[in-house]
């Protein structure tokens, strides 16, 4: 067997160093420029062109590699808003990659099997480990950041989810972006609506599943229904994004609450 000289290895070493340097620089880019290009190309009005993305996933893969290259210590040194923006983008980008890896499918629930949901698959690379989407959402974001508006930003590739933004989350604008997400979500009558004639307020099932996350910040002293604490906190949160008349209606509490069925069909561009 022929030995390989140090001189022959030099170009390969140089290329490896350049790649590592490029990944490091991209990972530190708080504008998430690589992801911005992916979203601009494949996301329109909250829907995704999965077919086109599945044929050209290289930019998405490179972006996920840049996130995986971020050391935990560097991440912890960032402002909280930059950390949370990073994690929201990671979750949504990893979900896009999961769908693309199994495309064509009709629902994210078509992935996995009886004993392992798609959210329990080890598909996310972070801080030198391979973890799951559930780890990112429940073990990191919900556990460490106490920001209930993340439920307006995390997108599980389904029509019942909030719309996927056509831009990344960035720390400098995160508060405004999360507020905008809430408004967009609550404008959709399939996610929230008030039926005054019937005396019913319809909420997305997201508030049934995660309403407890709104309690610390939004539980009102009075009003906003006669239901549980998580229901009243959810309604108080929702009221912040409505007209004065609608907020007043919610505050008076003379209605019942029903939860809308969640649409798990793929949030694919061109589908209804």
What does this structure look like?
This protein is mainly α and 272 residues long. The chain folds into two domains: 16-187, no CATH class; 192-259, no CATH class. Helices cover 50% and strands 8% of the residues. It is built from twelve helices and seven strands. The protein has helices at residues 6-27, 33-42, 50-55, 58-68, 72-77, 80-102, 133-145, 174-187, 205-210, 215-218, 229-239, 244-252, and strands at 43-44, 47-48, 124-126, 129-131, 192-195, 200-203, 256-259. The protein has a three-stranded mixed sheet. Strands 1-2 form a two-stranded antiparallel sheet. A two-stranded antiparallel ribbon has the order 3-4. A hairpin with a 2-residue loop joins strand 1 and strand 2. Helix 4 (58-68) crosses helix 6 (80-102) and helix 11 (229-239) packs antiparallel against helix 12 (244-252). It is globular and about 50 Å long. The chain starts with 5 loop residues before the first helix and ends in a 13-residue tail after the last strand. Mean pLDDT is 92; it is low at 12-18 and 20-24.
């Amino acid at each position: 067997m022929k030995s390989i000289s140090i001189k022959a290895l030099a170009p390969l070493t140089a290329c490896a160093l350049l790649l590592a340097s490029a990944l490091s620089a991209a990972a530190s880019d708080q504008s998430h420029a690589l992801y911005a290009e992916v979203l601009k190309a494949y996301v329109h009005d909250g829907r995704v062109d999965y077919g086109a993305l599945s044929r050209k996933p290289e930019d998405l893969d490179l972006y996920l590699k840049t996130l995986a290259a971020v050391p935990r210590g560097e991440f912890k040194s960032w402002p909280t808003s930059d950390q949370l923006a990073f994690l929201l983008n990671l979750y949504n980008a990893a979900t896009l990659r999961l769908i693309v890896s199994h495309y064509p499918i009709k629902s994210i629930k078509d992935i996995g099997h009886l004993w392992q949901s798609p959210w329990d698959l080890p598909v996310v690379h972070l801080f030198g480990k391979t973890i799951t989407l559930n780890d990112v959402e429940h073990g990191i974001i919900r556990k460490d950041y106490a920001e209930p508006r993340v439920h307006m930003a995390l997108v599980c590739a389904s029509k019942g989810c909030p719309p996927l933004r056509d831009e990344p989350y960035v720390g400098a604008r995160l508060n405004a972006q999360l507020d905008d997400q809430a408004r967009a979500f609550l404008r959709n009558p399939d996610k929230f609506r008030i039926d005054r004639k019937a005396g019913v307020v319809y909420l997305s099932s997201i508030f049934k599943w995660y309403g407890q996350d709104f309690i610390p910040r939004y539980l009102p002293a009075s009003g906003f229904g006669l239901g549980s604490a998580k229901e009243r906190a959810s309604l108080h949160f929702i009221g912040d994004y409505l007209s004065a008349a609608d907020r007043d209606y919610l505050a008076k509490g003379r209605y019942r609450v029903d939860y809308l069925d969640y649409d798990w069909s793929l949030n694919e561009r061109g589908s209804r």
